[in-house]
Amino acid sequence: MAESAVRMEDIALGGEKKKKSTPHDVDPAAALALARHEFGEHGGVNMSIEASATFTVMEPESLRRMFAGELGPDGDFFIYSRHFNPTVLNLSRHMAAMEGTEAAYCTSSGMSAISSVLFHLCSSGEHVVASRVLYGGTHALLMHFLPRVCNISTTFVDIADLEAVDSAIVEGKTKVLYFESVANPSLKVANISKLCCLAHAKGLTVVVDNTFAPMVLSPARLGADVVLHSISKFISGAADIIAGAVCGPASLVNSMMDLHQGPLMLLGPTMNAKVAFELSERIPHLGLRMKEHCQRALVFATRLKKLGMKVIYPGLEDHPDHELFKSLCNREYGYGGLLCIDMETEERANLLMNHLQNYSQFGFMAVSLGYYETLMSCSGSSTSSEMSEEEQKLAGISPGLVRMSIGYTGTLEQKWTQMEMALARFHENPPI
């Protein structure tokens, strides 16, 4: 299988070897443009959809060699779409190119990508050090499911406190350092480079969820071993698809696809080929979309702050991680498409969101993010509700924290007018 891992690099990046780079060196859009383009079966500029569950071979001996790992997708040999599918593989190449990794594998959801990686890297009795600020589903997986089902424990720490991270690592037991590049929902920014240096010195694998910052941040180029995505969000962009991705070394992806022990193979988090085709058509304009999401988020955050609102956005100079973000981010992509408004109480948060949706039509009250319309939710009672009140307090999640994923429909000034209308109505009749 080692030989197959080398060939996987050719599959992922079209034969281009992964190169070490510093922040700002590589534009993800340029890397995507260099990725292999798959034409349709009859010469179409778009690839064909390989909707087959199983695949035939010309020689009976080929089946034995395929199951033995001697023949694989690098030579156009496919066994079964739960293992490798040509259309899904093409999307995986693009994800690898975008993140600057040797290989990638696309899955049925972001959570299936996260759980598969953790199952692969950790065994019973082993340990994870993780950020205390995580998506609620990830927190629940680490806090409750893995200890109960797998005897895998997690210590949650303030990821900005490098001494705390170092102290939480148990020699011989801790296998993974897990965090989000931009935390959900607090928008704290991880010092990816320093965290990777610390973890690698202790022999840990660094796993980074980059869902909030595709194109904006490139964790693998900053030292991360594995980069995860919920493709359902910005990469999809239309709130109509559930999907995920694991991006990392070819050896990791191959071992996760092992017929006998690989979690991607045995747990079956399979992406449908038709879904992969849809997503492959959206990735070419992801960079353009991200720039507009980020630009509007910066404008709204700046204007809301001038109105006296308590705004959290890494692009604001008073954000504690502003300079760190500037030192890590890819040029011209901004500071992310999410901002938070701290309304202090859930009642005030709900009233503001009600006005924004039902009075001024600024956006929609819905979880998720990366949609072309603005989506907003009160995180403490929704996407972070898996965390206890004490855990939310430690994570810096106020009961009235409104998370907004800023869309790009309509004109910027049109949407700002709608925001002002909702704020005016809120101030006319504020909660007592």
TrEMBL record:
The modification N6-(pyridoxal phosphate)lysine is found at residue 233. The keyword Nucleotide-binding does not apply. One of its GO terms (molecular function) is catalytic activity. Keywords: Pyridoxal phosphate. Signal peptide: none annotated. Belongs to the trans-sulfuration enzymes family. The keyword tRNA processing does not apply. This is Methionine gamma-lyase. Its cofactor is pyridoxal 5'-phosphate. It comes from the Eukaryota. It holds the Pfam family Cys_Met_Meta_PP. It comes from Flemingia macrophylla. Residues 1-10 have a biased composition (Basic and acidic residues). Residues 1-25 are annotated as: Disordered.
